[in-house]
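Dear colleague,

Following up on Tuesday's group meeting, I ran the structure prediction for the two-component complex that the binding team flagged. I've pasted the input sequences exactly as they went in, so you can double-check that nothing got truncated or mislabelled along the way. The structure tokens for the whole assembly follow below. Feel free to forward this to whoever is handling the docking comparison.

Inputs:
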Amino acid sequence: MPSDLRQQVRLALEHPHLSAALTRFSEDYRLSRARAYEGVHFEALRARIADRKARAAERLNQLAERFSQAASARGAQVVRLHTPSEVRNYILGVARRHGARLVVKSKSMATEEVCLNATLEQAGIEVKETDLGEWIVQLARQRPSHMVLPAIHLTRDDVAELFSREVGEQLQAEIPQLVRVARQQLREKFLRAGIGITGANIAVAETGSLVLFSNEGNARLVATLPPVHIALVGVEKLVERFEDIEPILAALPRSATAQQITSYVSILTGPAEAAEGGAKEMHIILYDHRRIEMSEDPLFCQALQCIRCASCLNVCPVYRLVGGHVFGRVYTGAIGTVLTACIEGWHASRALEQLCIQCGACREVCPANIDLPELILEVRRRAADVAPLPVASRAALSIVSSRRAFHALLRAASLAQKPFAEGPFLRHLPLWLTEAGKNRRLPALADKPLRDRFPQLPQPRPGRRVAFFAGCLIDFVYPEIGEAVVRLLNRAGIEVVFPEKQTCCGAPAHFSGTPEAAADNARDNVEAFSGAGCEAVISACPTCTAALRTESPRALRQQGWHELAGCAEHLAAKTADFSAFIRQLVEKGALRLPAGASLPPLTYHDSCHLKRTLHAWQPPRQLLRGAGYELREMQESDVCCGMGGSYSLKMPEVSSAMLARKLRMIAATQAEGVALDCPGCLMQIRGGCAAADAPVRVHHTAEWLASLLEATD
Amino acid sequence: MVGKFRQAAEAAGAEVVECRSPDAALAAIARLLKEEGVGQNGQTAVWPEGPLRSRFHPELLAQLLPGLVLEVTRDSAAEARAGITEFDCGAASTGTLLQDASAAAQRLASTLPPVHIALLRAGSLAADVHAAMRRFDPARVPFLALVTGPSRTADIERVLTIGVHGPRRLIIVIYSTEASHAL
């Protein structure tokens, strides 16, 4: 854990406006984005974008050639350049040839990537960013903290101060006045500039067209007023056909700024008439810088599908706390992590990749259908190959990957903690849980794990039979959840078995980027469950369910253990999450839950893996309502609680801030209890409530339901 | 279609004026320019070539629209209070205007003045931008411009502010060319 990252995170969290401004933004964004997509079939649209962009990414060289021919035929000067220094030199050459003293720019991430402004300034050429946000950031001598809203981290007071210094007069912090000042200051620059530099949102190979999106109108002015136009275009902006513009045109404004369309969309095919008459001089730089390399990578080629809408930042629960100066370099947030790794190298993305909590919110909204959490995990895995995990983490994982050692350790810990336990909470947990107890009280390990209690649970006569997969938290910390699940299944006449040799689901190893350890876990579990002879494997932890269903078979295949992988796939097909399985029993009449009377009103927290991996947000709600509970929905019920497995230990400050917000949302509902379906979230939220002395009871859905059985037993 | 276009354009912050004939459109332009003070205190408006402009004799235009400048240059556009440009077609679902803006005058007149009066034939409306875009051949149109609402920014504290670099006021005058064509 680089301590400077923790330090940066702390500074960002202590900043007086940053988190509050970004959080308000992300709350509004979720709603306005949803409105912008009303009546649009988002899944179909993003499948179309992903398809077009993926096909383009497969043959970037070919499309770049075709683009060059088409745009050259229309009179543009097209050049393909590979490195930042080539780009800087080329642009400097054009500027010198024209004796340009002033360059105006519209927003372009690619020019940020090559550090163009510094180069031009060193050569004595004045550079003006003309996008309002970019200009603000330029005056502040900072870099953009967001790919669409570059100055989102600054307030109107900050802007007033910067503008006052620039114009040499004290300006009030009134936004319309500040915008007027920008208009006046930059208008004169537009009219005087010798060169205009833009990026491009799309480049069409068959026609040689560039598409520019803008709301302010600055891109139009940059491309129109100066006699020379240089467009710097990353090759990943290429699509094959003119009609491929359509899906991007439909998605980019909706995802980026929640608009149906931006104020201006300009499609440039070769030079148009210059403002002084005659044809303009137009240079198009098709820029590679590692993108061709990326396109050849079976996983990272996906990142070339990105259309730079920044929605992955807008919905990220970590970005909204720390901002893009901590969570990003040139490119920010989730896609920024992946692009940084690919373009700058694994060392550069190390700090970014660790900030990702793997909640999956970005994957849900990505209009290019990029599996961002998976790509970030891959960044983590490859970084681990280059720079291995710290010794303590590796030691912990090697223990978890050996069932015997792990279980022996947990049992020992259960005894060792005795002097420190106070009620159901621990002051000082042994193991690697020790540093995480500041704003959250950590649970004690159970006296007796579920595996030892199981033999005492009487089972109905053999008929239907399922196996229970406990997972570490239910087995060793919350065995009562397991008992509740068993009671509910028994009530439906189903016998439950507990294969003794089951072990960790492999998720901790998977999420920390050590696939070999995950495969060891998967092998042990396949061996434990294969002989159990049951119709289904039930888990009451969505992370475990997801691991057994998807990651275990994959981890085994990656190790080349194909026979075991086949068994794991067979097992995966039978694995179900608790709430979905129970709801089926209720629907079929196999289980009747007695309707409770005078039950406490509850609020429901959606766990990341249940909502976004298993897509099961309805079954628990239906079960709880069916049993007579009143559900009071909290705001953003599906935003991560900050647990994220070991994330809460690696990034305790971020985790605590996420938890604090969750607790506020819970309190606002005035519910008396919280229902949730993940023992990890339970540990986080129950611990948070206890530390805050909140009078709210937090239980797994299985417990809320099973308590009704007790009332009638 | 006009109703749908109007609704979408207004939602995007544009004003929409419907006219039954080219003559009525000219009268509407005269009213709008007067409202903006064009023709008084040296205030001007620019209007580059277009099908509606060419229907009227320049002398008539000069008489009806005091302050009008027909020669559009960087300077005349930068000084003008209002720019009048004629669009090739509109997209109803988003209230978008589309134009072959390859002639620099069209871009100067629609971007530099603080007020933009956009003229659109009612009969030119397409259902959406995709259908409208298909009417242009990129090989023949070096600069295809799509305009939806006035210039806007939300770069300071995400507060929507109109008229940052381009026009702060976009007025779309939709006119019918046939007397029988009901709007």
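Residues 419-436 of chain A have pLDDT under 50 and may be disordered.

Cheers,
M.
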